[in-house]
Please model this.
Amino acid sequence: MKTDVLIIGGGPAGLSAAIETASRGLDVTIVDEASQLGGQLNQQTQVLRPLPSVYEPMRGFELANKLIEQIKGFNVRLLLNHRVVGFYADGSAGITDEENVFPVKAKKIIVASGAAEKAVAFPKWTMPGIMTIGAAQTLINRDFVMPGKEAVIVGSSDFAMETAIQLMDVGIRVKAIIEKQSGALAKEQEKASELSKNGIPFYFNSFIKEARGNGQVEQIDIELPDEVITLSVDLVCMDGGRAPILDVFYQLGCSFGFQEELGGWVPQYNHTLQTGREDVYLAGNAAGISTQGPLLLTGMIAGISVSEELQAISPAEANEMREALWKELGLLEDKEVYSGRIKHLENFTSPLLKDQFIS
Amino acid sequence: METNYETIVIGGGVVGSGIAYHLSERYKEGVLVLDKKYPMSGTSGSTQAWVWVHNKTPSWYAEFSMYSAELYPYLSKKIGDVEYKRTGGLSPFFNESDREKAQKLAESYRKIGIKIKVLSREEVLEKEPYMNPEVAGATYSSIDGNVNPFRLIDMYMRAAKRNGVRYSTYNRVTEIRQVNGKYLVVSDKGAFECKNLILAGGTWSREIGDMLGVKIPVNQLRGQILVSEPLKPFLNFTISGLRQANNGEVLMGYSMEEAGFNRATTLDVIQETANMAVRYVPGLRKAKIVRAFSGIRAMPEDGFPILGNVPGYENLYVAATHSGVTLSPLIGTLITELIMDGETSIPIDRYSLSRFG
Ligand SMILES: Cc1cc2nc3c(=O)[nH]c(=O)nc-3n(C[C@H](O)[C@H](O)[C@H](O)COP(=O)(O)OP(=O)(O)OC[C@H]3O[C@@H](n4cnc5c(N)ncnc54)[C@H](O)[C@@H]3O)c2cc1C
Model:
C-alpha cells in the first residue's frame, strides 16, 4: 500500500494533522490501534479550554466528534484496530491487523502517538484496584464501568482534581487526596476547593506507605508528616504525570533530547515539527506533554509543514500559517511548557541522543 | 584512580572480561579494564549465547571450540552459576539430500574426537517432540549448550573485582601511544600507563587498532533475534536457530547482514526469522513475541579468531572473534598463559594477526 502521508495515531493531534493535509488533496492514511478515532478525547467529559480560535470551547468527546466529522469529506484512509509494529529495511511501516503484517510506504510520516501515564510506585502498587487516573476516567466515561466504590487519589494536578470530581459524580466515594508536595498542584483553584467543600481531606507532605489486600487492594497505609493512618479502599488512582510515547521514534532512528517541562525524553524537532529524520514529523503529546488546545495546534503545524514539503501548499503560505499558529501556541500554552518547547527547538541541532542504540 | 597498571584490557565484553578474570586468577594486582560503555552494552549483551561446537568448520576450529566448551562446567564452579546448560545441540535438515553432507561432517569430526551423530527423522522427533514432523533428520552432538550471557559477564566481573581487577566504565579510549617501552592509554577519564596492553574491543577492534597503526581486520555483521514470552519448558536442546532460556523465553534467529554499526531491527528480517522458527518448531506460531533485538558481530575478515601477540609490538595482545561466548573461557586461559608464561598450552599460531599479512 502507498500513501502520501501516514499519520500514526488518530487522537486530536493526528486528526488535526489529517485535516490540514487531506484538505489540500493529499492521500492520507491514519493508523490507530483503537477501534475508534479521537484518542483520549473519547473519555474526556470535561469542557476543554482554551482551544484554538477556530474551535468553540466544548467537551472532549464533542471535540472528537467534530474532528471526525471534518475529515469525513476528505480522502483519508482509516486503519483502525491496526498497529505499527516496526519498519522494513526500505522504510515502509509494518502495520498489523493482528493477523497479518503488511507494508505501507509513505512519502511522509507524522507520528502523533500521544503519551502514556506514569505510575507512582509504592509497595504492592501493582495490585488490582490500583490504577492511573486516566484508566479510572476511561472506565467510568467510556466503558461505563465502576472501577470501585471507595477511592483515594494520589496526586493533585488539574487532571487529578478533574478525575476526582468525575469519580464523585458517578457515586464513587473519594476518601482522600494524597499529595507529596506541601500544597495542591492544580492551577485551577476552583476544582480543589470544590473537593474541599465536599469534605474530602487533602493530605499534604504525604504518600502511600503500603497497600494491602487479598487479591485486590483493600487497605492502604498513608504516611502523614507525623503519623501513619490506614484507610479501607477498593480503588487507588495515581497521577504520576505523563510521558511521550517514544517506541516508533526509536524504531525510526530519530534523535532525542531531555526536556523536563515536556515530559522527559522527547524526540528532537524543529519549528516545522520535523524530527531528526527528514521524512518524519511529529505532533501532539509525542512532541511534549500539553493540553488539548496546544495539541491541536501542533497537529496543524505538522500538517502544514508536510503539505508544504509535498508541494500541496506554497512555502510562503505555509510560513505565514505556521507563524500564526506558533504565535497562538505561545498564547494558549502553559508558559513553562511553552518555554520548554522553545528550549527544545534550540537543541535541535545538538540532540543528547543521536543513536539510541548503545553501539 | 591509580594511573599505573601492569596490564590494561580495552573492552569489557565477554572476551575482555574473560581475559581479565583469568588473569586475575594468577595475578592479583595491576589489571584495569576500560570500557566505553558498559560490559554488556556491546555484542556480548545481544547474543544467542550458544556454547556451540558442532557443525563449525573446518574441524580444527570445531576442536578449538570444543576445548572451550569443556571449560564451562569448571568456570561455573569458580565464578558461580552462569546458567550454563550442556543441552546438546541439534542441527536439523529438511531434505533427505542433506544427509550425505551431514555424514561427511560427522566423519571429519570423528577424526578429531568430536562425536556427532546423524539422526533419522524418528530419532529427532523422539529427542525433540515439538520439532516439525517434516524434518528429515539432524546432526546431533552432546557437547553443545548455552549460557546466560548477562550472568556470565556479571560473574566474570564480580570474580575479577574480588581478585583486585579494576573496571572503569563509560570511559572511552581515544588514543594509544608508546612511551618508554610502555603503553600510554588516553581515555575520557584520563590517561593510564601499562606494560601489557590487551585489545578486546570486539566489533570496534579496527578503530582501536588504528590508534596504534595496527590493522585488525574485523568487520560488522548484524544479527537480529526474536524473543518470545516465557513458555513452559518444552525444548530440550540447543537447536541451530533457536533455544529456550531458563526463564522459558525462546530466542530465535540466526540472521546475518552487513549494516555497519546500525543496530536497528527491521521487519523483513523479523518476518524471515519468525518463518524459520515456525518451520523448525510449528508450535511457536502460537507464542507471543515480546521483543526483537539486534547485535553487531565482530567478524574477522576470514571468519576465524584473531588471538595472541601483535606482531612487531612487545606486550601488545589482541583478542577479537566471533563466537566469543563459546570461546571466552579458552581465550581467557590462553591469553593469560601467553602473558604469564610466554607460551600457550594449545597452539594459537593459526589465529595470529600475522596471517593477514
Ligand atoms: C545475533 C548474534 C548472535 C550471536 N550468537 C552467538 C552464539 O550463539 N554463541 C557465541 O559464542 N557467540 C555468538 N555471537 C557472538 C558473540 O556474542 C560475540 O563474539 C561476543 O559477544 C564478542 O565479545 P567481545 O567481548 O569481543 O565484544 P563486545 O561484547 O562487543 O565487547 C567489546 C567492548 O569493547 C568496548 N569498546 C569498544 N571500543 C572501545 C574504546 N575505544 N574504549 C573503550 N572501550 C571500547 C565496547 O564498549 C564493548 O563493551 C553472536 C552475536 C550476535 C550479534
Observations:
- Chain B is about 30% helix and 25% strand.
- The interface with chain A takes residues 37-38, 41-42, 261-271, 292, 296 of chain B (CB under 8 Å).
- Residues 215 and 297 of chain B are 18 Å apart (CA to CA).
- The mean pLDDT of chain B is 96.
